[in-house]
Write a structure and sequence with these properties.
Distance between the termini: 39 Å
Largest sheet: none
Strand content: under 5%
Number of strands: 0
Radius of gyration: 19 Å
Helix content: over 70%
Order of helices and strands: HHHHHHHHHHHHHHH
Length: 308
């Protein structure tokens, strides 16, 4: 029951991220994706640090910077570049490659055994998302394809390294999320000012959109996400990311009148099957865990005894 609860809570994050497409197109000023990324990250990161009253120490300064760039600072702009150069469906399909990236990285970085199960279901998940969101009019653009694939790789490295490094003893998940959001936001700040600037005006709808992206799509979701990564097998957490394009497609049909035919429904079924299969540990044996959460109280006690 504990594993199921953790999975459901973690799944809230990519599900909420799926609302980003509707919020961006319907509420935010057009032509300012970098500013939207900045507002989503930096204020939420500062707020999380204030609420938790926790700052990085030691190696966590550079670890937070690396993770902040991979998970947020680089990933957000790459996501928007892909979306601006490609049809939304093709960009979402490229982003769905993240579970495949993680399936490879857990072997290289976490030294887990290669899993054909994860690789196969990762491919099924991509195929499902493609059926849901791709249209026959989709056209390729080199810059957009490169940005979409690099975004998947960036987030894949971020997820895997988040699992490898865990989080320091006594620091809540919101604290670690705050460090990364702030680091990603600081990375985005000069890029945004240099290449884009601020919108000419921000009305009430745009303000509501920015608040949603920052407080819910940033602070809440990344707290749940990093907490889940610490407790779940990293490949199981990564495949939950397929929920994002599925939620986006569902909201598009519900709110924007976009059509969902038989092909899209098959795609939904394949993607959901891939998500469910991704929660199954191949061979029925628990994976070698790099989770630091369960060890933190014991480690702290041991350190205290050595100190005394």
């Amino acid at each position: 029951m504990g594993r199921m609860r953790t999975t459901l809570l973690t799944a809230i994050a990519p599900a909420v991220w799926g609302t980003t497409y509707v919020v961006t197109t319907e509420l935010l000023p057009p032509g300012h994706p970098l500013f939207a990324s900045l507002v989503r990250a930096l204020p939420a990161g500062v707020l999380a640090i204030v609420l938790t009253r926790a700052l990085p120490t030691g190696a966590w300064w550079w670890k937070s910077a690396v993770l902040g760039v991979l998970n947020i600072g680089a990933f957000f702009p790459l996501l928007f570049i892909a979306a601006s150069h490609l049809p939304g469906g093709l960009a979402a399909t490229l982003g769905a490659a993240q579970p495949l990236v993680v399936a490879i990285l857990v072997v290289a970085i976490l030294r887990e055994r290669f899993s054909a199960w994860r690789l196969t279901w990762g491919i099924v998940g991509i195929a499902g998302v493609a059926l849901v969101v791709l249209r026959s009019t989709a056209t390729l653009d080199g810059a957009g394809v490169a940005a979409g694939l690099l975004g998947a790789v960036s987030m894949g490295f971020g997820v895997t390294l988040s699992k490898k490094w865990g989080r320091p003893a006594g620091v809540p998940a919101m604290g670690v999320a705050g460090w990364q959001l702030a680091a990603g936001g600081l990375f985005l700040l000069p890029v945004t000012l240099l290449f884009e600037g601020m919108p000419a005006s921000i009305d009430g709808s745009a303000l509501a959109g920015y608040l949603w992206l920052g407080l819910v799509g940033g602070l809440l979701t990344y707290t749940l996400w990093f907490s889940g990564i610490a407790r779940l097998p990293v490949a199981s957490a990564a495949v939950l990311g397929l929920l994002s394009p599925l939620v986006a497609a569902g909201l598009g049909a519900w709110l924007l009148g976009e059509s969902l035919g038989a092909v899209q429904l098959v795609g939904f079924a394949l993607s959901l099957a891939a998500i469910a299969a991704g929660q199954v540990v191949p061979g029925g044996k628990p994976p070698t865990s790099t989770n630091t959460d369960a060890r933190q109280p014991a480690m702290a006690a041991a350190q205290g005894k050595r100190a005394s």
